[in-house]
Amino acid sequence: MQKVKQFLQRKNIVFSARRYGIDALGAMAQGLFVSLLIGTIINTLGTQLHVPFLVTVGDYAKQASGAAMAVAIGYALQAPPLVMFSMVAVGMAANGLGGAGGPLAVLFIAIIATECGKAVSKETKIDLIVTPFVTVTIGVLLSMLIAPWLGTAASKCGALIMWATDLKPFLMGIIVSVVVGCILTLPISSAAICAALSLQGLAGGAAVAGCCAQMVGFAVMSFKENGVGGLLSQGIGTSMLQVPNIIKNPRIWIPPTLASAITGPVATCLFKLKMNGEAISSGMGTCGFVGQIGVYTGWLKDIADGSKAAITAMDWIGLGLISIVLPAVLTVLIAIPLRKMGWIKENDLKLED
User: Fold this and answer.
1) Per-residue pLDDT reduced to its tens digit, 129-152
2) Last-in-domain residue among 128, 153, 178
3) Which runs of consecutive H residues, i.e. helices, occur in the chain?
4) What torsion, rounded to 10 degrees, do the Cα atoms 289, 66, 146, 144 define?
5) Domain boundary at 119, 153, 187, which?
């Protein structure tokens, strides 16, 4: 046993909740942002501005999401170069085979493949062959065995959403808003699930509300700790950056989640907010304002087919309140008593540098 401990120490393989649940997960969130999320933002801009070049740039960025997440995880686990470079193939396999659960598959599989690669790294005279061979083979094999199962689990979350759309708008608004919002923050692709389910209409509007509540809520609630940079990276980037902090203190998730439970039915019952644009926009929230652009393009589509007369002032007011104002105000108000109770302490929302 002592020899095993010495070997693991020499290889810098540390089995800890912090390394896997905070360091690796936090890095993966950044990898997701610089690929899928920024790609979707660029793609949407290109589509709306009629600039084909930007659409192409966005497409390439989105295609690199699996590789970007896996390499980021390898970096966080302090993998040697050959192992980290091998993560490109592992990430592409895990994300591709994982479907809607791609990011979740990448997280688990990249961690295992990285540690296995570290274990054999520089142990032979043909390290250039052995290390990438072991890393890629284990990663792709696990992707074939585990990723589809994780994708199925993620799709079941989508099935819950579709079930909720059959309910009355009030209850449906709560369920869809909370579920999709939480999925957005977790290492699961809310955009992929919404796209796979063609989540549009009132359900799509509720999904937008939930995603905005998480992103804007965390951004505003953590402004003291993270400043303008944190406000922008979460508010128009991704609330997934807070997952490492959620693992350390799950109570910080209460304010934005309760806010989403309020904004969801407000969107469906009061403002009748619908997502009749691209379904993927339902799961994007304020990420590059793709969710809001999706709602707007839906309005234009409805006007073109005659189902909507014009875009009204109430439409804009509702979109602004649901997307930004209510999430910001509600999350801060809900967080106040939690801070007084000591459930949320100073720097609990501090993002890793």
Assistant:
1) 999 999 999 999 999 999 998 888
2) 153
3) 2-10, 17, 25-32, 38-49, 52-63, 65-76, 81-98, 102-120, 127-165, 169-185, 190-196, 201-221, 223-235, 243-248, 254-265, 290-304, 313-320, 326-340
4) 130
5) 153
Is the distance from CB of 339 to CB of 252 less than 8 angstroms? no
Query: Quick one: 184 and 331 in the same domain?
Result: yes
Q: According to the 3-state scheme, what is the secondary structure of 146-185?
A: HHHHHHHHHHHHHHHHHHHHCCCHHHHHHHHHHHHHHHHH
75 plus 184 within the same structural domain? no
Give the number of domains in the chain: 2
Q: How far apart (Å, rounded) are the C-alpha atoms in residues 134 and 38?
A: 32
In angstroms, the CA 353 to CA 342 distance is 25
Could you tell me if 230 and 351 are in contact, meaning their C-beta atoms sit under 8 angstroms apart?
yes
pLDDT digits (tens, 9 = 90+) for 226-262: 999 999 999 998 898 999 999 999 999 999 999 999 9
Q: CA-to-CA distance for 169 and 258, rounded, in angstroms? A: 18
Token pair of 323 as six digits:
């997307």
